[in-house]
Design a protein that fits this description.
Chain lengths: 172, 166
């Protein structure tokens, strides 16, 4: 896949994610979040990150990152019951939130003739958690502010030969 | 709570809730309870394989099944149940509750695998009430029939001895 096509695909994916964030968050939280320009996190804090990989026309990955305060407030609004940041249920909540969003992204890409299948979510929690991306893979950062607090997405696209994950038993 | 099946006492349905996320299982159970369609009694399963071991068509009245799960997906579970016990109007209704929402996936679940209804996450109580009314109603009728058949089985048979002591 040429870098131009790859670049176009990355922008189509980013558009689908932005649109899906509006639709999904509006339906769960009652209002869409506001997009904020930021280069990424500046302060060190406890976070929870959920990653979903997509396979199909091109492999790519979406990571949702929630600082502790946002995660707790979103979990309460999403589930209707309190979920402490350190409990196992928090992983489930953020994984499910990403899963619901990913379903909408897949549907939107499908309407644009881009076939995608999503993986199960993988969740990590800790201080300053970040997704490691393949060197040189196009990546973008989408920051948002909502009534529950600020949060952001990392989108990482890669060509089919550039794989987002290392195959077991091969060199990194 | 409304009575979905006219002329009958309130039915309690035994619902199998299949999702690898414990939180999502809680949310589905909470939503169904709050929908007040009928009384529900819940049995939980963590994936398709776990659900297969817990599925007894005499016991379970309705199933709510997530799609994306490890070990055995929801749609594989539905296919397996329909292969084992058959489909059609007399079969236990199975409802997909999933974040998948493309037409292809909906068709695969309903037309090919044999699911009876499709609920997209996130759902509201109102959506559960409207989209599940008929399916829950069918599950209720099947439960009443199962109970009646069971009662009949337990009654003494109307044979020669019944005539003698009748």
């Amino acid at each position: 896949m040429s870098s131009n096509v790859q670049g176009d695909l990355a922008s189509v994916i980013a558009d689908a994610v932005k649109s899906s964030v509006g639709v999904t968050f509006n339906s769960i939280f009652g209002e869409p979040p506001v997009s904020v320009a930021s280069e990424g996190p500046t302060e060190s804090c406890a976070r929870v990150a959920s990653v979903i990989s997509f396979f199909g026309t091109s492999p790519w990955a979406l990571t949702l990152v929630l600082p502790e305060e946002t995660a707790v407030k979103m979990a309460l609004k999403f589930t209707g019951f309190e979920v402490p940041f350190d409990c196992a249920d928090m992983g489930d909540v953020v994984g499910e939130l990403t899963n619901v969003l990913a379903g909408e992204v897949v549907a939107q890409l499908n309407r644009r003739s881009i076939q995608s299948q999503m993986s199960l979510p993988m969740v990590a929690r800790g201080n300053d958690v970040e997704l490691l991306k393949p060197t040189g893979a196009p990546a973008s950062h989408l920051g948002y502010q909502s009534a529950q607090g600020h949060f952001w997405f990392e989108i990482c696209t890669a060509s089919t030969v550039q794989r987002l994950c290392r195959k077991p038993g091969t060199a990194a | 709570m409304q009575n979905l099946i006219k002329g009958q006492a309130m039915v309690t349905l035994k619902a199998l809730v299949v999702d690898d996320s414990g939180v999502m299982r809680k949310m589905v159970m909470k939503g169904l309870t709050e929908s007040k369609l009928v009384n529900f009694e819940f049995i939980e399963a963590v994936d398709g394989q776990d659900a297969l071991t817990k599925f007894d068509p005499k016991e379970i009245d309705i199933g709510f099944v997530d799609w994306n799960m490890p070990n055995m997906t929801g749609v594989e579970f539905v296919r397996e149940i329909r292969n084992l016990y058959g489909g059609g109007v007399g079969s236990v209704p199975l409802v997909m509750v999933t974040s998948e929402k493309t037409m292809g996936k909906i068709q695969e679940a309903l037309d090919e695998a044999g699911a009876d209804a499709f609920i997209c996450k996130p759902f509201t109580i109102e959506e559960l009430q409207t989209k599940l009314k008929k399916t829950v109603e069918r599950a209720g009728i099947l439960r009443l029939r199962k109970d009646a058949a069971e009662k009949k089985k337990q009654q003494p048979s109307g044979g020669l001895l019944a005539g003698l002591f009748g």
